[in-house]
Amino acid sequence: MHSIQEIFTQLHTPKKVVITTHQKPDGDAMGSSLGLYHFLIQLGHTVQVISPTNWASFLNWMPAAKLVLDYDRQTATADAAIDTADWIFCLDFNILSRTKRMEEKLSASNAKRILIDHHQEPQVDKFAYGVSDTGKSSTCEMVYDFIIDSGNDDLINEAVAECLYAGVMTDTGSFRFPSTTASVHRMIAHLKDKGLSHSKIHENLFDNFLENRFRFIGNVLLNRMEVFYEYNTALIAIPQQDLIKFNIVTGDTESLVNYPLSIKGIKLAAIIIDRGEERKSSFRSKDGFDVNTFARKYFNGGGHFNAAGGQNKEPLEEVVAKFITAMKENKDQLSNYQF
Ligand code: 5GP
Ligand code: MN
Predict the structure, then answer these.
(1) What residues does ligand 1 touch, defined as CB less than 6 Å away?
(2) 287 pLDDT tier (thresholds 50, 70, 90)
(3) 0.85 exceeded by pTM
(4) Could you tell me where in the chain the CATH 3.90.1640.10 domains are found?
């Protein structure tokens, strides 16, 4: 993988560009994709954003979100865009399997794949150019750096600013996580100077849920959460029938894992959701427990040191049993914790 700086000089030659991201894109995945989209179209490129799957409706306010293709539902149109692409930007993921059904098409494409990502252990041989930096708060911060470093500060307009703000804000837990560096705050100050209205974005993202989601959360916290004090660990396991009963849709379960993490003393929080086709897990930790390694080792996953996820094909009860075994195997690290 060559440095992304090597494409700076080519940015002024119009190209056919596809931008893609990980399945079930979150604020950072969608924000970085659409932020980059609004930047590249100003340079005369023909750009198509493709999401491997559907996404939460609370992301639909983002400028041009309605132009994003859902690979699951619009496969033929998306395949045609991939077939003719010169460049495929891969944002907020670094292993092609995170694009699910799109992986095969992406691997076979003759386009140059360009990585912009902040997760650990990138598949560097899959990308012609790229930047991978686990020290970055978000992929949106990296897209911002890409725009600035390529000398295009003047192309940061309202649409770019709104999309990039959404991703930085959500990936830093509203500027709370240790990844929120001074540079992040300087970036946001710069976006504000460019006219960004941030309050509306918080409202769009956090005040747009339906009542059923809160009834569901009530049920989850009352009936589906178990706390293992001896291990400073809490687990939520959600059977598929709960999702059906409460009409849960994509995005409704996002950030639920943060509830158990805010219990006093909890060092590892996990949520395992039976999505029918797979059991999807999310892990969050505080301080020294590395959930990226944990997710890779036991749950076919990965991510960051303090936030990771995975997926399993086994039934929910087996994945829960696996989690409990894994927790016990990590007892030394989990229980040696001073409050
Ligand atoms: P979340 O729990 O919010 O789905 O994901 C937490 C972090 O781990 C995100 O940065 C996400 O990209 C990453 N992640 C989630 N699931 C997986 C997975 O199955 N494989 C890998 N490699 N990373 C994942
Ligand atoms: Mn991210």
Answers:
(1) 22, 95, 98, 119, 282, 301-304, 307-311
(2) confident
(3) yes
(4) 2-206
The protein residue whose alpha carbon is closest to atom 6 in ligand 1 is 308
By C-alpha distance, which of 170, 163, 165 is closest to 189? 165
Query: Which amino acid residue places its CA nearest to atom 16 of ligand 1?
Result: 309
| Whether pLDDT at 64 is above 80 | yes
Q: Is 335 helix (H, G, I), strand (E, B) or coil?
A: helix
Pocket mutation for ligand 1, best pick of 119, 236, 268 (most atoms within 8 Å of C-beta) = 119
Nearest CA to ligand 1 atom 15: 309
Q: How many CB atoms are located within 10 Å of the residue 23 CB? A: 22
Instruction: Look up the CATH number of domain 2-206.
Output: 3.90.1640.10
What is the average per-residue pLDDT within 225-240? 97
- Helix, strand, coil in percent for the chain, rounding step 5: 45, 20, 35
Q: What is the rounded (10 degree) CA torsion for 140, 136, 2, 86?
A: -10
Report pLDDT digits (tens) over 149-207.
999 999 999 999 999 999 999 999 999 999 999 999 999 999 999 999 999 999 999 99
